[in-house]
Amino acid sequence: MNYESIIYETRGQVAWITLNRPDALNAMNGSLLAELPAAVAAADADKDVWVIVITGKGRAFCAGADLKNVLKVMNSDDPNAVRHFFEVASGAFARIEACNTPIIAAVNGIAAAGGLELILSCDLVVAAESARIGDAHSNYGVIPGGGGTVHLPMKIGPTRAKQLLYTGELLPAATLYDWGLVNEVVPDDQLEEATTKLAERLAAKSPLVLRRMKELVADSRDASLVSAQRAEIKIWEAHANSADVLEGLNAFSEKRQPVYRGK
Predict the structure, then answer these.
(1) If you count DSSP H runs as helices and E runs as strands, how many of each does the chain have, helices first?
(2) DSSP run (H or E) holding 172
(3) pLDDT per residue as tens digits for the range 50-91
């Protein structure tokens, strides 16, 4: 597939997806909202891709929705235009979150509004020291439409979520690390290297294990403790039939590094 608004490349078993609208701070227009989930789906379907990285080109990770495009939607004569726009946006984030493959957000600069919602759709977050992250919707008289009011309180708690939502301020990556949104903060010039190291660490694991762990964590959010534990045991029973579990145990017994095949 040919992309206009992103760059897609694979480095070993890691797929790198770079938002490529640097002059617009990688703001999300129709093209980017269509291409990003499509690229994630393509990587998820690639048996040779075991980890996905999403980052931005230039001085921003993603500044959110393209506000000029939002204004155009608001002024449209189509009574369904607003609903359609946010269905597309929320659907894109939902498809990214539902990806089976672990996703790392490499936050290289400004991440605001929809950029924050994109971060919330990922599994792990590595941020540059200069990155500034926040909601920002309140600065422009709009509310989140990509799940921000739902996922942000689940990630950092309602009190801190309300601070980001109400004030619209962008906070340093180090603060969001303390709040539990960011996993690692690194010097700006080490972001790619640090993200690569993390991605390669994950790619050295069994992809079946990581996918099943991701599934269990996601499903446990809406399940009772008893139901979640039963689901874990059920998945374990299925996992016991895989070649990777035997490889991992045999490698431990033989004091060698395991070589997983994702089977």
Answers:
(1) 11, 10
(2) strand 170-172
(3) 999 999 999 999 998 877 777 776 667 777 767 777 787 888
Report, as an integer, the average pLDDT of 100-128: 96
User: At which residue do the structure tokens 């690639």 appear?
Assistant: 46
Pure H helices in the chain:
30-45, 67-74, 81-97, 114-121, 148-156, 158-167, 173-178, 191-203, 207-220, 225-239, 243-253
Q: Looking at the predicted structure, is the pLDDT value of residue 235 above 80? A: no
**Of 9-23, 149-163, 187-201, 223-237, minimum mean pLDDT range:** 223-237
CA dist list (Å): 214 to 63, 132, 141, 168: 27, 27, 35, 30
Distance CA(164)–CA(53), nearest Å, equals: 25
Chain centre to alpha carbon of residue 37: 11
Would you kindly state where each structural domain of the chain is located, as residue ranges? 6-203, 207-253
Which residues is 125 bridged to in the sheet? 105
Q: What share of the chain is helix, strand, coil (3-state, %, to 5)?
A: 50, 15, 30
Of the candidate CATH numbers 3.40.50.1100, 3.20.20.140, 3.90.226.10, 3.30.1120.10, the domain formed by 6-203 belongs to 3.90.226.10
32 and 88 Cβ atoms separated by less than 8 Å: no
pLDDT band at 142 (very low <50, low <70, confident <90, very high): confident
Could you tell me which of 117, 130, 218 has the C-alpha nearest to residue 164? 117
Q: How many Cβ atoms are within 10 Å of 201's Cβ, its own excluded? A: 10
